[in-house]
Amino acid sequence: MQDDPLRFGANYTPAQGWFHHWLDFDLDEVRADLDAIAALGLDHVRVFPLWPVFQPNRTLIRPRAVEQLVALADAAAERGLDVNVDGLQGHLSSFDFLPAWTRTWHRRNIFTDPEVVAGQEEYLRTLAAALADRPNFLGMTVGNEINQFSGAPHPDPDRISPAQAARWLERMLAACERGAPGRLHVHAEYDAVWYRDDHPFTPAQAAGLGAATAVHSWVFDGTAQRHGASGTATEHHAAYLIELSKAWAPDPHRPVWLQEAGAPAPLIGPEQAARFTEATVVNALDCPDLWGVTWWCSHDVSRDLADFPELEYGLGLLTNDRRTKPAGAAIARIAAQWRGRAHRPAPRSTALVVDVGGAERAPGRSVCAPGGAFFDAWTALTAQGVRPAVVLAERAGDPAHLAARGITEVLHVRDVV
């Protein structure tokens, strides 16, 4: 893994119709989008079938929709792009996409109801199996930030315990593996998994289940509000989450995928987007064991579509008419610099100890959130020029663990001034 070239890609948001394009699938439009992405020098896309469109009934997975997904993957291959597929959408850009057989009159917990879970398993297995023979198929992501359905601040959550979350993840990942053995199957949560004390999806699950740890870095979580567009914490937020995730990883060299990062307005203004993008990626590249970076997103959301939060409209590397934006040019430059090169940054030899009240459940993980004592101490060290790793309190005295990660100095929050 350490000698594999870094991967650079984009989360594919179709230029026309956003993810509603599955309802009026136009392969020529998809090809034009993929041409523009490939022209940036990127090597992969993450794609998002809409769950209710693909599985409108628990026992109906639409063959035509699956064929269209395969056609998209084949079009990507023609342009030198690998494909990761998110299965359970789930949640995208403030909108929920759950099939009718899980809501209202058929209201059932999507994480624990036996029939719903069996339907999800078959859906994920079917998508994975349809792509299993495609060389450019990277693997499945179980769903996009589906953990947001499990508790606050969702207005109608399907509440579960950490043990139930773990069982659900294990079953979904196993279904992906049955469909396409040996691929890079992962799960992906938004940052409540790292920051919210009572959240049922835990850091141990994020860093221990699946073939890699997926990190989603969004600075509208309080980071940019506190530190500004060019603050140390803001420009290093993705690197912080990468290093934080590694504290829980059972394998000291488990790959970490920066699967989402974006430049959200107005906290990151249009004139600041290129700088922020470059700083975020360059700082992430200073983290050992990084698998790659997949920027959110490929194309802007069209202003013809209503009711999105304002920040969602301008996140693309490309405009709706497929012109490269300054942030897209920044990603293209970095991808060109790294093409074919192995990623071997120096170990982060100084580690900051994080104590979350127990590694397994992490009941005190809010210290890691923006404004938390650990977050602020890590930021202060970074501003001083230190490259801090993160080590769990439970592992801080384990010489073998420290040596495996190249850690030679251990600091506590109280040591940071």
TrEMBL record:
<protein>
    <recommendedName>
        <fullName>Glycosyl hydrolase</fullName>
    </recommendedName>
</protein>
<dbReference type="InterPro" id="IPR017853">
    <property type="entry name" value="GH"/>
</dbReference>
